Task: structure prediction
Amino acid sequence: MTVRGLALVVVMLSAPPAPALAQPAITAVRVSGAGPIADPAARVWKDARPVKVAMLAQTVTLPNLAEPAVKELSVRAVHNGGWIAFLIEWTDATLSDRLLVDSFGDQVAVQLPVDVKAAPPSPMMGHVGGRVNIMQWRAALQHDIDKGAPSIKDLYPHAWTDVYPDEVLGATDARPYAGALGIENPVSRGVASPVLDQMAEGWGSMTVKPDQHALGKGEWKEGTWRVAITRPMVSDDVNAPRLVPATRTAVAFAVWEGGHREVGARKAWSPWIPLVIQAAPPKAGAR
Amino acid sequence: MAKVFNWQLGREIDFPYEVERPEKQFAMIFDTNKCISCQTCTVACKTTWTQGRGQEYMFWNNVETKPYGYYPLGWDVNILDALGVQAMDGPVYQGKTLFDAAPTGEVILGYVPDDRDYAHPNIGEDDSTGTMPRGAYMTAPHMQWMFYLPRICNHCTYAACLGACPRQSIYKRREDGIVLLDQSRCRGYRECVKACPYKKVYFNTQTKVSEKCIGCYPAVEGGRQTQCTTSCIGKIRVQGFLGKPDKPDADNPLDYLVFIKKVALPLYPQFGLEPNTYYIPPVHVPPAYLRQMFGWGVERAIETYKRAHEDTKLLAAMTLFGATPEISHYFRVDGDSVVGYDAKQAEIVRVPLREPAVVRELYDIKHKVYRTNIT
Result:
């Protein structure tokens, strides 16, 4: 067994996967409308009460940071019967959406248990047999969508290259020179959404799902990130939760401050927080 | 941490995983005395593997001038400084490895280079340690010196990149020990970039994930040596496989040079990774510097190398450098020649141990001139 595997077992034995009691529940308020709720400036957020979520340092597995930068998130949740959405806000003085070898991107993630009827699995990315759905928004992907992926010339204005394979070869022949893009690694390719829809069964198992359902958008203004993340409440994805109004499940969060070189396991995380999915309003005429 | 045996350090070390040695280990030997830093290897690698977008700065193979050349800037002095002075006397290393020196919260001691550290691949090129004073004369080792250090990924037995990756995106192949980074699994955390003390994992800004030397595995699987080896005009390299360190095969040229004759030494063995590219140290450089770079066997390796002309089998193994594009799994001396064999013991190359020489008369009677070159 690996050291990490052993550490995970220790966590599983020492940290029962129960929702944290001290943390007030988050209620996904029923709002009107239909379709994705991916706009952080949408009016619907006014209907939801923001809940402060205390963020903890990930210090159980290696590598880690004892003092991650973000200590608290403000979270609102809404749903319209078809889509559930979270608006996550936090203070971040530096906008980090450019990836260089020594530059890391801001990120935030929402985690839901796949099996909403069972007790939540390990809050730390689930465990073997206890799957979680993790929707991760990345500032670098948001940048690519809003402004286009930065070219080498954008990153290094004085760079000069005589010719690239894709300029002289056909698409198929040039593919081997495109690295992870050539094999469509989902963290590489330009995607329609800045949110990666993923599943995990413990540390190191994060997998971007073949079918992407999560959408969202992030805006950084005056030292604050406002990020909306939304997904269908019900889908044909077996690795996604089936979220039904008038039920309860749990939700957890993770956040990375790129300017503080936070990436991967170097992050701040929250334990499970009760998530109440508000019932649909009674239909007109119903008694 | 698991306990694994590092033969280069003569002791067990801590490593994140229990590791079984591969069936055979991809390895390369460089004769630094023959390298002229022409960078043909660098260009061969670059044109083969790293022409794409985001790979502009990647040199899976590079050649730097020591002591003032580094790519990226200061890679070795930075990590040596972080590790601190360690006792480096053999046969058992008493100092700390990079795993021993891991700070709290880390798998290994390492650092992420600054982006600008990659801006000067030729820094320090051809710079000597200093200028020669008036009246200076040749001494050995030289009073002022430099040498060329060709480098690729070391395909370490206990690879730091592999140990540090939290996703196990990096793996070591059981069949040949080549260390590969799975381009479909990497998520660009750069833990490998941080952990590799040799800084041979590179982050690609266009794909948002990291990349590294692949040991030319498509060629190696076909029995051919790597591009950087076959393109070497100075014939300073040989690439093949090492067997088990406790059961060296005297008929395997790499086993013979590394395990038996100990004429080729690992690069910064004190880091603890059991790197698998080996260097015949430069004979003109002060041993104090070389000992830090190649370990405590430096003086003996230099002495062995200097006397290679008296040792037919050693000369034979070294004559295979640059002699064939194919991988010599075995070799033997046959009369005045060395013969290289493939994995199935079929002859692939035959090279005379001494280059045939013809000495002509100094005076050319026909043309009535003295010759300036008679050999």
